Amino acid sequence: MKLQKRPHGLRTAAERQVWSMFRQLSTAALVVLVALGRLSLATAQESNQAGKPKQITNSIGMKLTLVPSGQFLMGSGESAEAAAAFFNRTYGGNLKADNFKNEHPQHLVRITKPFYLGTCHVTRGQFRQFVADTGYKTDAEKGANPGAHGLDIDKKEFGYIANYSWRNPGFEQTDEHPVICVSWNDAVAFCKWLSGKEGKTYRLPTEAEWEYACRAGTTTRYNSGDDPETLAKTGNVADAMAKAKFPSLSGIKAGDGYAFTSPVGSFQPNAFGLYDMHGSAWQWCADWYDAEYYAVSPADDPTGPDSGSGRVHRGGSWFTGPADARSAGRSPATPDHRGNGTGFRVAMTQ
């Protein structure tokens, strides 16, 4: 069964509702096929990536991993109400079902071509090469309102800190840590520079590519399973160590060894060989954000709505709880937003 692309001209609420119902019914039929074993959630099409190395290293020392073409169910397979109830019951807090509704309806997505994705986040050292080569000033370093959002390390509260930037995120980092306090605009500028330097197309991954790569064939909350405590081995989220420093944080009970960001590649990779898809730093995606986009998304290589006010970022960070770090979790921020929990990784197509 092939999901139909959204017809042009669906403007009224009634038309959108009818189309959404059709998509949900089509996806339900596909789920049945999956259960019958007639369709794989992530079928790597070897003929499409024959001859491509599984990992490459570019001129700035960045490793990129080949992500095969395939298909998967995008979005949450858990109802918004069930997700909110689970995390409130397990970790406390006051999450609402509305916090999770943008992950529905779950729908089939096909990634029709293989692509390379950064094996890890872009590091401070790699970003430093970009700045040294171009003299670039980040959004946190220019304009009438310099600084970055995030967790104020001294005050132990969230706010806007005027002297925070990728050079000074409020805590010590080495060049092997993910670069943070960078906006979507900064990430796109980095990709443009790297494309020119390498003679290849570097860009931010689409939201669909990101989730497909994060899941790596899994259908659970995380690529490590449904239990948030497994994140202690696969991702750097708010944990016992972070909570000891910042009691207001809500995190997993286990300790992952880091209170702040961790050097890239410190945890176990997923089945595609990608590190830190959960936690350490939010990861910018190319797409504009629309909470209702899933109801009208095309099946093949969706790229998000044509316009919006916020861009998507995924994966959670060192100070966010396990709900934010889920494979299906999605959140918007303005393109000039920067925070000491926000970074990025790049995609590359030849």
Query: Which blocks of ≥5 consecutive residues have pLDDT under 50?
Result: 1-11, 32-47
What structural category characterises the helix and strand content?
A: alpha+beta
Tally of DSSP β-strands: 13
**The level-1 CATH class of the domain at 116-349:** Alpha Beta
| Overall mean confidence score, pLDDT | 90
Q: Please estimate the helix content.
A: 10-25%
Coarse shape: globular
Largest sheet: spatial strand order: 1-2-5-13-8
How are the elements arranged and paired?
Blueprint: H1 13-35, H2 46-49, E1 55-57, E2 63-67, E3 70-74, H3 80-91, E4 107-111, E5 115-118, H4 124-134, E6 148-152, E7 157-161, H5 184-198, E8 201-203, H6 207-215, H7 231-234, H8 240-245, E9 282-288, E10 311-314, E11 331-333, E12 342-343, E13 347-349
Parallel strand pairs: 9-12
Antiparallel strand pairs: 1-2, 2-5, 3-4, 5-13, 6-7, 8-13, 9-10, 10-11
Task: Name the descriptors.
alpha+beta, paralog of FGE (formylglycine-generating enzyme), five-stranded antiparallel sheet, 24% helix, disordered N terminus, 8 helices, globular, 350 residues, four-stranded mixed sheet
Detailed description of the structure:
The chain has 8 helices and 13 strands. The protein has a domain at 116-349: paralog of FGE (formylglycine-generating enzyme) (Alpha-Beta Complex). The radius of gyration is 20 Å and the shape is globular. A 5-stranded antiparallel sheet has the order 1-2-5-13-8. Strands 11-10-9-12 form a 4-stranded mixed sheet. It has a two-stranded antiparallel sheet with strand order 3-4. Mean pLDDT is 90; it is low at 1-11 and 32-47. With 350 residues, it is α+β, with helices and mostly antiparallel strands. A hairpin with a 4-residue loop joins strand 6 (148-152) and strand 7 (157-161).
